[in-house]
């Protein structure tokens, strides 16, 4: 029975169980469709294909590659890489790309992240719906026209080029010596960190003492899930930072496109603080070059992000959550940098794409060019108190959000309400007490996601508990 591709091809990428949902047959059809919808209309003579360490990756990547080649398009197979390694290949080769990864999902899953030449995103509104539709037709028996010649497949290891490219963007050679614990979670950070921060790719050594955790590539994730967004998955890193008296810790997710930071005490640093820290570094470079910098941030990053960036002379642009939206805003605004609460960081110098490794290098540079510890740096960029993302299972997300909206409209008529992405209620500018919250529905589950921030802890706790009470059936105090 043919799989319904609507189950596995969503707004941003392909993600499914192997082989029940994502099989070599499906990968082959998606490869054909990608060639027809993206590569051939762009006049792209080749497609770059990479994969992470999952056991199903080689077979699925081969099937996709065969599908692309069957439509007369060449393929550059770059083998094992991080997702940002694939974006680098797409950028420097000026070729559409496909990355086989399920990011932080469990071992039974795999997926495909697709991009156009120059690492430009392919999402629901930028080609993915058309890829899904054509691939479904192929799986249902439709035949495509014959091609004159099958595309050629060549292999190219681009890890060294990727490492050298990043080294050219952030110079770490002159920083003070730092000890850094890195938790790769048995994911692709174990492949890229030794090349970028070490000497595995033949680059010069840096003043870094890297303590590795779980660098062995293993798509079964034997130690913990490669999802640092979950606090339980940071525990080993936090303990190791304290044990080794390290200056900081870094945690990468499975495909190493996200990076989380832990300070010298083992405390997690908010991705909003990292967005502000890295954003200010990039803003400084733009101002020195005589340009007015634009920085993108999603609507649930801390208020400190736009406040600090604007004070430094930048133009902050607020956008909805999701990498396809951030990337589109990055390109349309020629933004120098963008950051999300989920620890995705985007750089104009990196094809407007996200790269956890480059963000980590900026953090190392910021820490290593001044004498203060990581905790002091983080505190500078974390003036407010946040709840973190809290999920509630609901029967009717729209009706629940409407109930929250009605209650807060009555209780706080001076609050600002907007619907850019879910429901945002802000009681901040020229208001006291200062707080805001965002309530968004999940795209894939019957969940409402709540984020709250306030000027102090007591206010945050009250707003958090009041909104959760409404969401879960109660009433505000």
Automatic annotation (TrEMBL):
- Which positions fall inside the Alpha-D-phosphohexomutase C-terminal domain? 389-468
Q: Which InterPro entries match?
A: A-D-PHexomutase_a/b/a-I (IPR005844), A-D-PHexomutase_a/b/a-I/II/III (IPR016055), A-D-PHexomutase_a/b/a-II (IPR005845), A-D-PHexomutase_a/b/a-III (IPR005846), A-D-PHexomutase_C (IPR005843), A-D-PHexomutase_C_sf (IPR036900), Alpha-D-phosphohexomutase_SF (IPR005841)
Essential cofactor(s): Mg(2+)
Question: Which keywords accompany this UniProt record?
Answer: Isomerase, Magnesium, Metal-binding, Phosphoprotein
CDD domains named among the record's database cross-references: PMM_PGM (cd03089)
User: Where does the source fall among the domains of life?
Assistant: Bacteria
Ranges for domain Alpha-D-phosphohexomutase alpha/beta/alpha come to 8-126, 162-266, 288-384
Alphabetical list of SUPFAM superfamilies matching this protein: Phosphoglucomutase, C-terminal domain, Phosphoglucomutase, first 3 domains
PANTHER family annotated for this entry?
PHOSPHOMANNOMUTASE
Family from the record: Belongs to the phosphohexose mutase family.
* Entry protein name: Phosphomannomutase/phosphoglucomutase
Q: Which organism is it from?
A: Isoptericola luteus
